């Protein structure tokens, strides 16, 4: 019987190390446990407690502007959007969120290592709070401490839960969607109220020794400022040579342009649909962040007409059957939400604008328990104790106003009057005094 023939296999050619190099090995992390470590709530508390004990915020390893970014995130607890506004790039414009996080993630570990703290990344801090901890068994003779909640926070939650929800209210009619416009108009037939003559005031962003901004896009007629801005009017009247107003990074150039569009000429019954900047004229969507920044600038300059235009616009958006779509400052489409406010706004208005504070407080009240949820989402500790007390007192005294069903006369109580600001608005722009050439009397 013939043997079974073996299968012929070709001989393997000799390997050439130069032509067929060995496959590269994958790089492995030397210390994978450092990045995959799960931090406990105790680690978080110890780290945050160590931050609160830092008194000297200077560093030999990190320059001051990078230390300031770390302070914004971990001490002032500013949002990423606010940090971006305060940290300009080389062109003086707000940097991107990617860059602000890159600065923080690069220099925060060095800074805290210099201060003797074990750094915990931002992402790990959020996940650490969600890690379930084993309950400690009670031992005889020892009492387990319970986390105490603030009495103000507990009372706020109770009162907000007792507020009626606007979902149970009858839908507003089309006539009630748009509130009555504010009455702040000047007489268009009066030539003294025209802004076609006179010089302009330039608004520039000043950061220390550096001034940013394009003056050609940030000019506002002096007559408009004298008519509507009570805060700086006194200085302009006493110093006619002043032609520049500087501001900090918290006020963006776009916000100044929106403010100029509101007060230039004769303010209409609504916010302008188009705003002119140094780069052209653009359609204005009016997101909540833009309205909030504009309102803060208007209060700072004492421009009640701009405050009232914003109040009317928010009431209109509040009563829309369906929320409108807006493009935020990062180019993303989102639904407009009147509850998209934070503690910074209410804390500011509590000290500077009583009527504005009352209005935005009623925005929270009008949403019922959702108002408290919004406060909790932005961390109740960030809301000033005085703000909480006023909110509690208003609800306990049953003075909360439902903006969904408020009458036009009630809404007009949120409008500002000349006496709400330090100086009364003049009826016409003052004329500069002519220089005296004659000799003084003997």
From TrEMBL:
<feature type="region of interest" description="Disordered">
    <location>
        <begin position="1"/>
        <end position="35"/>
    </location>
</feature>
<protein>
    <submittedName>
        <fullName>Uncharacterized protein</fullName>
    </submittedName>
</protein>
<feature type="region of interest" description="Disordered">
    <location>
        <begin position="168"/>
        <end position="198"/>
    </location>
</feature>
<feature type="compositionally biased region" description="Basic and acidic residues">
    <location>
        <begin position="1"/>
        <end position="10"/>
    </location>
</feature>
<feature type="region of interest" description="Disordered">
    <location>
        <begin position="127"/>
        <end position="147"/>
    </location>
</feature>
<feature type="region of interest" description="Disordered">
    <location>
        <begin position="416"/>
        <end position="442"/>
    </location>
</feature>
<feature type="compositionally biased region" description="Basic residues">
    <location>
        <begin position="131"/>
        <end position="147"/>
    </location>
</feature>
């Amino acid at each position: 019987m013939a043997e079974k023939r073996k299968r012929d296999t070709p001989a393997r050619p000799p390997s050439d190390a130069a032509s067929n190099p060995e496959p590269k090995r994958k790089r492995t992390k030397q210390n994978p446990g450092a990045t995959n470590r799960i931090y406990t709530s105790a680690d978080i508390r110890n780290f945050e407690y160590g931050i609160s004990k830092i008194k000297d915020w200077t560093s030999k390893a990190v320059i001051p502007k990078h230390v300031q970014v770390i302070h914004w995130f971990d001490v002032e607890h500013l949002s990423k959007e606010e940090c971006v506004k305060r940290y300009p790039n080389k062109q003086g414009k707000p940097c991107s969120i990617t860059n602000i996080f890159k600065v923080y993630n690069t220099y925060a570990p060095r800074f805290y290592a210099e201060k003797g703290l074990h750094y915990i990344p931002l992402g790990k801090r959020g996940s650490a709070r969600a890690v379930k901890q084993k309950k400690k068994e009670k031992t005889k003779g020892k009492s387990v401490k319970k986390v105490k909640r603030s009495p103000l926070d507990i009372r706020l939650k109770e009162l907000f839960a007792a507020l009626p929800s606007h979902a149970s209210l009858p839908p507003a009619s089309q006539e009630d969607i748009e509130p009555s416009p504010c009455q702040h108009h000047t007489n268009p037939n009066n030539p003294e109220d025209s802004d076609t003559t006179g010089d302009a005031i330039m608004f520039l962003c000043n950061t220390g020794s550096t001034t940013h901004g394009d003056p050609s896009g940030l000019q506002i007629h002096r007559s408009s400022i004298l008519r509507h801005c009570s805060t700086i009017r006194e200085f302009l009247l006493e110093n006619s040579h002043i032609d520049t107003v500087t501001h900090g990074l918290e006020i963006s150039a776009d916000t100044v342009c929106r403010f100029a569009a509101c007060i230039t000429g004769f303010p209409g019954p609504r916010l302008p649909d188009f705003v002119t900047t140094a780069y052209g004229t653009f359609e204005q969507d009016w997101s909540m962040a833009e309205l909030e920044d504009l309102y803060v600038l208007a209060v700072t300059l004492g421009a009640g007409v701009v405050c009232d235009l914003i109040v009317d616009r928010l009431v209109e958006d509040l009563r829309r059957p369906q929320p409108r779509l807006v493009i935020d400052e990062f180019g993303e489409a989102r639904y407009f939400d009147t509850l998209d406010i934070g503690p910074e706004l209410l804390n500011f208005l509590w000290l500077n604008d009583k009527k504005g504070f009352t209005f935005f407080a009623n925005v929270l009240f009008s949403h019922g328990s959702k108002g408290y949820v919004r406060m909790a989402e932005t961390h109740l500790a960030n809301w000033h104790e005085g703000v909480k007390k006023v909110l509690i007192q208003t609800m306990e005294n049953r003075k909360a106003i439902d903006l969904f069903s408020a009458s036009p006369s009630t809404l007009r109580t949120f409008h500002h009057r000349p006496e709400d600001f330090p100086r009364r608005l003049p009826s016409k722009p003052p004329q500069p005094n002519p220089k005296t050439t004659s000799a003084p009397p003997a």
